[in-house]
Amino acid sequence: MYLAIPLTEKSRQKLLSVFAPKFSIVVAHHITLCGPKTFGTSIGMPQSVVDEYLSRENTIEVIGYATDESLETVTVRINGSTLAQHGGRPLHITLSHEPTRKPVESSFVILANDHQYLKSPLLLDANCAKIFH
Measured between alpha carbons, how far is 15 from 76 in angstroms, rounded to an integer? Predict the structure, then answer.
């Protein structure tokens, strides 16, 4: 199980209009907060935090951009925080990638490349949800 914040279609289109995809597989779908290896564990997000995300509107701001030769991503701030609860990785939305890459690699692209901050945040609408894969 994943805990994620899926973008509304309106926000997805807004994001893609500002950041035209560079690579062949376009994602721009969600922000993963907690994955299957950490959901409900001591290194993952406590149930109280999960309940808090699920019970309220969350403020989503795109604050930066990072890319390498085959994957691009934007960094986000949720309710003032830029780090995910699962391992402290940067919160992000994978924009696009080539078939040789996976969206889960976005955190590494942010950490390994020159991250560009936006002059002003881009606000997005999204609803927190449990996503089953």
Answer: 12
Residue 90: name the closest of 64, 114, 71 by CA. 64
pLDDT above 90 coverage of the chain, percent: 47
Q: Closest Cα to residue 107, out of 60, 64, 75?
A: 75
Q: Which amino acid is at 19?
A: F
pTM for this predicted structure: 0.84
Instruction: Sort strands 60-67 and 116-124 into parallel, antiparallel or unpaired.
Output: antiparallel
The Cα 99–Cα 106 span in angstroms is 14
Domain borders along the chain are: 2-126
Q: How many helices (H) and strands (E) does the chain have?
A: 3, 8
